[in-house]
């Protein structure tokens, strides 16, 4: 009898426990969620912030067949802005006019307006690192102007999936390394929290002139930035200043450099290529150089590392010396002159010019980052720490105060590898008789 009572009690406890073990009490169906794909931050009017959110617009579903229909409305996102002291409060306020449950689990981009970036980001970052919904794989960018204006101009024309569009648009390999290779939130916050390290984000900008149909490519002589009749180097442009018209009214081009949690300045596309090369993250990209036979023309080649850049750090007392060993190679893809660069003498001239250009640009960028902006974007501190016996010695050294006094030397080697499918220049048949 006692054993039967004990058995009945166990069965009763088990029956009552089953509902509690289901784990679905706080479940929210995806159909009831509103997915935030981009967050922008600007300074607010009352010592607070303006948070701009871009929500993915749900695709209409065919109720009969269960499949997606072709949307008649091509709008992919809806955008709104809320004033608040932090993101969590902004999301709570947003639920007063957003029917679905807001979530950040699929957020792809975190965008800082230029003014808030120059003021300092630590109050915002302190909240983000605590929020479980923020993924550290988000892309981080700094836009010229306001983040709100930038997000309002996210108007994709070639994709129907906003998340896919962001992933494709911000893939540094698709961009040819004209944006920083390491531009995810995880890289950004680790650099911010590391002593002396300079954090890097993508440089972005809205193009209101393109949206209004007012953009024009300046004619010869009307652009003060052009030098004579020389062809422009495409990489020497910043986001918002690319010579074009048409398509989406925003751009991702170049990088933004931080000193601590404050924006130090922007690098154009060419400087970003050099930065990726010096940090050892460069893979390959189209690169323009002046033609050694005619400086008014450009040649283009696919440049890739023969070996990834090696950095050697030496310290003697308080003096720090850095050596960069850079080995690159190139495949010729565009030549407008009639010079045959397969000839040994011409190959040597071309290699010498490219090597000289890479060396000059490397020295200029290293000096700008270390001596002018005092920002260690090369993560020298990771190597320098090993030269100290204890953590206290390293902390007492105060790396930030010594960045401006760093001595450096860049050693560049460049070799031509291929010359294209047709190795010789294209020559007009009648011209060959002259």
Descriptive overview:
Residues 214-236 are annotated as: Disordered. Belongs to the GerABKC lipoprotein family. Residues 1-22 form the signal peptide. Keywords: Germination, Lipoprotein, Membrane, Palmitate, Signal. Residues 215-235 have a biased composition (Low complexity). This protein folds into two domains: 31-60 and 74-221 and 230-282, no CATH class; 284-428, 2-Layer Sandwich (GMP Synthetase, Chain A, domain 3), CATH 3.30.300. Helix content is 27%, strand content 28%. By secondary structure, the protein is an alpha/beta fold. β8 and β9 (262-267) form a beta hairpin. The protein is globular and about 105 Å long. α9 packs across α10. It has helices spanning 2-17, 87-94, 114-119, 122-128, 147-152, 162-169, 185-193, 208-211, 269-278, 344-372, 380-384, 391-397, 399-402, and strands at 33-43, 49-56, 77-84, 101-103, 109-113, 139-143, 200-206, 250-259, 262-267, 285-291, 294-316, 319-334, 407-418. The strands form two sheets. Strands 1, 2, 3, 4, 5, 6, 7, 8 and 9 form a nine-stranded mixed sheet that branches. Strands 10-11-12-13 form a four-stranded mixed sheet. The chain contains 13 helices and 13 strands. The mean pLDDT is 86.
């Amino acid at each position: 009898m006692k054993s039967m009572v004990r058995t009945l009690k166990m069965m009763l406890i088990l029956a009552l426990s089953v509902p509690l073990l289901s784990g679905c009490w706080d479940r929210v169906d995806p159909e009831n969620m509103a997915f935030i794909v981009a967050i922008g931050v600007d300074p607010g009017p009352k010592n607070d912030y303006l948070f701009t959110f871009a929500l993915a617009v749900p695709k209409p579903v065919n109720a009969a067949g269960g499949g997606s229909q072709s949307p008649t409305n091509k709008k992919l996102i809806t955008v709104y802005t809320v004033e608040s002291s932090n993101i969590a409060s902004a999301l709570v306020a947003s639920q007063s006019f957003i029917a679905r449950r807001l979530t950040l689990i699929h957020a792809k981009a975190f965008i800082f307006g230029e003014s808030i970036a120059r003021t300092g980001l630590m109050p915002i970052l302190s909240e983000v690192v605590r929020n479980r919904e923020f993924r550290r794989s988000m892309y981080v960018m700094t836009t010229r102007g306001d983040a709100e204006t930038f997000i309002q101009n996210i108007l994709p024309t070639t994709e129907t999936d906003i998340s896919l569009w962001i992933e494709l648009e911000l893939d540094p390999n698709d961009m040819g390394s004209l944006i920083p290779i390491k531009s995810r939130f995880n890289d950004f916050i680790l650099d911010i929290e590391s002593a002396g390290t300079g954090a890097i984000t993508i440089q972005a900008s809205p193009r209101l002139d393109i949206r209004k149909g007012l953009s024009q490519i300046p004619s010869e002589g009307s652009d003060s930035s052009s030098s004579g009749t020389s062809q422009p180097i495409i990489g020497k442009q910043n986001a918002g200043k690319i010579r074009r018209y048409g398509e989406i009214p925003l751009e991702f081009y170049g990088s933004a450099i931080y000193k601590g949690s404050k924006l130090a300045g922007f690098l154009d596309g060419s400087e970003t290529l050099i930065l990726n090369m010096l940090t050892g993250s460069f893979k390959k990209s189209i690169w323009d150089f002046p033609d050694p036979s005619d400086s008014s023309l450009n040649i283009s080649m696919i440049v890739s590392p023969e070996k990834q850049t090696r950095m050697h750090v030496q310290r003697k007392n308080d003096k720090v010396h850095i050596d960069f060993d850079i080995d690159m190679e190139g495949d010729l893809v565009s030549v407008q002159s009639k010079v045959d660069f397969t000839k040994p003498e011409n190959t040597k001239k071309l290699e010498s010019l490219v090597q000289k250009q890479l060396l000059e640009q490397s020295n200029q960028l290293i000096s700008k980052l270390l001596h002018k902006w005092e920002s260690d974007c090369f993560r020298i501190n990771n190597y320098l720490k090993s030269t100290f016996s204890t953590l206290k010695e390293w902390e007492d050294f105060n790396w930030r105060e010594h960045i401006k006094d760093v001595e450096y030397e860049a050693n560049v080697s460049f070799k031509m590898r291929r010359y294209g499918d047709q190795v010789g220049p294209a020559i007009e048949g009648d011209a060959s008789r002259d």
